[in-house]
Structure formats: structure tokens, C-alpha cells
Amino acid sequence: MIMSYPAVPVLSADVPAVSAPSSDVPAVPAAPCDVLVIGGGLVGLAAAWRAARRGLRTAVVDPAPASTAAASHAAAGMLAPVSEVTYTEEPLLRLGLASLERWPAFAAELSADSGHDLDYRTDGTLEVAFGSDDLAALDELAGFMGRLGLPVERLTGRECRRLEPMLAPAVRGGLLAPGDAWVDPRRVTRALLAALERRGVTMVPARAAGLERSGETVVGVRLAPAGGSPDGRPPSPGEPPGEPSGELSGEPPHGGVILAERVILAAGAWSGAARWLPPEVVPPVRPVKGQIMRLRSPEPILRHCVRGSVHGSYVYLVPRGDGELVLGATQEELGFDTRVTAGGLWELLRDARELVPGVTELELADVVAGLRPGTPDNLPLIGPTVLPGLSLATGHHRGGVLLTPLTTALLMDEAGDHEELAALCSPLRFQEQR
């Protein structure tokens, strides 16, 4: 079962020379972990699962893992490195293609370990153009994809409608990326929680408040006392504003220390707001808001993931096997603002209706705004920091779901001969500049 640490006022004798915590923060637990993950979103839970599969003693610190505050709760789950390629992000394309190759095995192992279906689908992405300017931009993109050797097929408007009869007659043409896939991130996080429970991973319903160090080496994490914010930062993943930390899952640890051989910070958009980190390792991560709408019909109205441009405005429609249709997504630089706005939803419906007129007849099931963790170069931060014992797994921006298998492989040294990929997303690229 998933356990919470009991409060025990002693430090493990196995790790010497650790500075003692203050008297009002009792120490926990009885023995150090091999891996301690801060953050219970999709990336953090997946990292913990891969560590546990290797037989490592693993714990996750998060007030409410896989909650509605996590970016994965809002994400559409597109695994689409080909159809999402842009002119300035070829390094990100290499990461995405490498991770997409790992998704079939990742999904199969997680489904077997958890007993959950992930709604993992491999029917490809159809990218369509609405107007003449949209079609011209799509033609340029097709040429760029061709120069990169990407597997895409150019289609006329009639050929697009043959694949997807619900498309509007005004659709001028499209591109089919048959290798793209998608998955339901909410199902994935539920599966990860079930798999972690089966493997006895400890879930600690609290916030991190500081690093425990022996010299320069990180040997653990100090927890925030329940009911208080240690540094005034925005709420951690899974922690609703104003909700006391630790009161969401059984008896909480009221502060304390968890010792660990390795600490992984995977707190998504909140990673850059962790003021308890030493300045030299604070990741340059910012929140990027995205608004998402979920509609529902008795049967799926689309077979492919459909992405489209409507007079230069982009929208995507991602079908689920149960009839849900996900519309997204806006990109807004508004800090930690998770308000759902009428304007954002109107833009999504306006553009989706131009491409698939039938969407306005569907039932409105859910609206949500999530926060993507953005970085200055749009590449993730995965791997060791300048502090021994501390690694990062954050900054995935809009590719968190896609990059999860590669992220866990890099963290667990399971990526094989991929030094170039590890270098692309190494946190040291920013920390050495500082």
C-alpha cells in the first residue's frame, strides 16, 4: 500500500556529517531512501516508478500527487514530435523522436504493472489548413519536414475529408504524420499511482522546504511544517491555494527530514519558484498558461488527432476512445494564473468549429487551465546539477507527456548511447553560465 512516513525525532546514523534540523522540525524517517522525488505530476511519478522497478527504495514528496493542479491534468497527451516540429527547435525534435520510440514499451510496462488502460493510440496526426494563407504556410512546413527526412504525406482537402469525414468542406489541404501517437495523461497518472502503490513507494503529503547537505552533497530534504508556507512561494504541484500542506492524505508529517542518496526535483512550473534551493541550482523555469476544453459525445467523432491553422491561429482536437474530445490550447505568459477565461474558451471553440463544425453540438464536459514549465530555450532540464546528489526533471514546456519515457531513461541511466541527448537537456548548460 502507499504509506506516509511517521514522525520520528531521530536522524539515520547511516549518513554522517549532516547538519541538524531546527528543533521545531522533527526528523523523519527511520532509514534513507535511494531516490526521493519532489513533485507528484506525471514526470515525477514516472521517475519514481522507474526507480522502484529497479528495486530502489523510493519516495515522492507532494501535498496531493496527480491533482488537478498538475500540468498533466490539463494536458491533451499528444505524442507528436513530427507534426509539432518548428523551424527553430530541431534539438527538441531529436528529443521527441527518441522518446516516441520508447512510448510503446513504456505504455505496455505501465499497463502491466498497474492493471490500467492508458488509451494509448497510434493512429497518427492529421494537420490541416483552413484558408489560402494557412495552406501556403503548410506548404512551407511540408518542405521543411521533407528536408529533415520526416515521414509525412501531403494531402488535398478531399483526401483529408476522406480520412476524417467530419472535417469542414472549407479545409484546403493537410499533412498526415502517421507515426505520431497520443495518450490520456489522466489515465497515465492514475496508472502510475496504482503501480507505485503495488511497489510500496512511499508518498509523503507535504512540501519541500530545504535541502539537507553534507558539505556540498545533497543528502536529503527538509519538509515544511503542516499548515504553513515556508517561503511565500506559489503553491507546489497538487497544493490548492490556501490549503494546509499535509492535510490531504491521512496523518501528515509535521515537518522533518527525509534522507536520500539522490534527490530529483520534478515540480513542473513550480520548480523555478523553489526559493529554498541554493541560487546556483534554481532552474530557469517559468509557468506558461494553457487553457483546455473537453467535450463529450457517445462515440468518437474523429479517428486521428487533428491539428489545424485557421487564419494563422492554431488549435488541436484530440479524440479519446470513450468519446471525449480535447480542444486546446492557448499559450499565455501570465505567471501562476490558472483562471479559465471566456475569451480563451471562445478562441478554442471558434477555430475548432471552422475545422470540425460538429464540435458545437457536443456536450461540454470540462474546462481547465494548466501551467506548462517553460525554459529560455524550450528544452527540458534533465539530469545532475552542480550539487552532487541533486538532479532536475523539469522544464518540459508543452512536451512533458511525450518526453516522459526519455526523461526517466536519462535519469535512471537507461538511455544507452545517448550522450548527445543528455547534453541537450543537461541543467549544467544554464548553471555553468551562472
From TrEMBL:
Low complexity bias: start-end ranges: 244-253
GO molecular-function term, one example from the UniProt record: oxidoreductase activity
Source species: Planobispora rosea
Positions with biased composition (Pro residues): 232-243
PANTHER family referenced in this protein's UniProt entry, alphabetically: GLYCINE OXIDASE, SARCOSINE DEHYDROGENASE-RELATED
Pfam families given in the database record: DAO
UniProt domain FAD dependent oxidoreductase: residue ranges: 34-410
Protein's UniProt name: Glycine oxidase ThiO
Record's keyword annotation contains Oxidoreductase: yes
Gene that encodes it: thiO
Gene3D superfamilies attached to this UniProt entry: D-Amino Acid Oxidase, subunit A, domain 2, FAD/NAD(P)-binding domain
